[in-house]
Design goal:
Chains A, B: It comes from Priestia endophytica DSM 13796. 2 copies of one chain form a homodimer. Chain A is α/β, with parallel strands linked by helices. Chain A contains 8 helices and 8 strands. Chain A has one domain: Aldolase class I (TIM Barrel, Alpha-Beta Barrel), CATH 3.20.20. The complex binds nickel (II) ion. Nickel (II) ion binds next to loops of chain A.
């Protein structure tokens, strides 16, 4: 699915944060009402069956809002549920392999350097996730990159770049003017008491060129 | 790949046991010389990239012996490396989904009851793995089944059944007469000082009807 009208602006990445799936779906629904444009389901612990079933339920919700579902890491799950795309990191299946498996599905890849960004383009990525822009504890191994590095990366490729890592209402404006096409957010929305308002606020503060 | 001449008799399931990949490949090569007929790569900890790369190296070795490679759990990895098949448990992607993704690849599924075995057949499995026949610590959650249950299961389906779980040279003969078409072995081969001899001995002691 190459969606030319696809917006990466407010990209929600899920995390159960020790809660239930029902709680997660409730929060995601609020976040969608608040203007989230894309949702990635990330499941680092779940077995395949659980991942698959949660993906189906999340997709059903997203379909109501016409918001695309991106599956993290498990290409088979993405294919199985008919997701709009798949997102892989540098330690996941190689991008070229992913592309060969998914045809024209959206494929995103996490990068930290200009070299990785350019390799992503070469290997067929539709977008890159760049981070961690504000190092956080969500991903313990997420290495930080500076604002200058972020700009260098966004300028080095023609595909959309999405910033990720520790983005909150307090720091998101620092990303304005960096050339990104969107911000990927986890805690700032899902840990908020009011995910709808949180998404709206983040959306407002992020100004894309 | 429906291989009518496929033998499930001596089915090696891998485990690194804390060793290196090089050590594993060395042991698998010896085991192949000892008559292993099928190899499953099981990676519960590895990231996608590592799983993929190890699969490619293992497949290269198996191809020399014309022995099929079965990938555990990750259907995407199986597709990516052109494996002969994929094996899933009850907590992995549902069998029907797996079948729809892999076409005519060999698909195996772990079962513990007649009901699960018959469901496996309905959902398109090519073979079933039945166990744990001799409960062990390799899979901490493996529940034991009795010899009578094993016989009941093998008699309930027409597809090949492979016994798994704690099978050693000391107990493999107890499986004779149960209607299985093979034994899946991990430690008894890979923890042996002489994997070739271990495979030969197991192979000799297991008498299929
Ligand atoms: Ni499409």
């Amino acid at each position: 699915m190459k969606q030319d009208n696809l917006s990466y602006k407010m990209y929600l990445v899920t995390d159960l944060f020790g809660g239930t799936e029902e709680e997660l779906l409730g929060k995601v629904e609020k976040a969608l009402e608040g203007g989230v444009t894309l949702v990635q389901l990330r499941e680092k612990e779940a077995d395949g069956k659980e991942f698959y079933e949660r993906s189906l339920r999340l997709k059903k919700l997203l379909d109501r809002f016409h918001v695309p579902l991106i599956i993290n890491d498990r290409v088979d799950v993405a294919l199985a549920v008919g997701a709009s795309g798949v997102h892989v990191g540098q330690d996941d299946l190689p991008l070229k392999v992913v592309r060969s498996l998914v045809g024209d599905m959206i494929v995103g890849v996490s990068v930290r350097t200009v070299q990785e960004a350019q390799k992503a383009v070469e290997d067929g990525a539709d977008y890159i996730g760049v981070g961690s822009v504000f190092p956080t504890s969500t991903k313990l191994d997420a290495k930080g990159i500076t604002k200058e590095e972020l700009i260098e990366i966004t300028e080095s490729v023609r595909i959309p770049a999405v910033a990720i890592g520790g983005i909150t209402a307090e720091n998101i404006e620092k990303l304005n003017g960096t050339g990104i096409r969107g911000a990927a957010v986890v805690s700032a929305i899902l840990k908020s008491q009011d995910p709808k308002k949180a998404a709206e606020e983040l959306n407002e503060k992020l100004v894309l060129q």
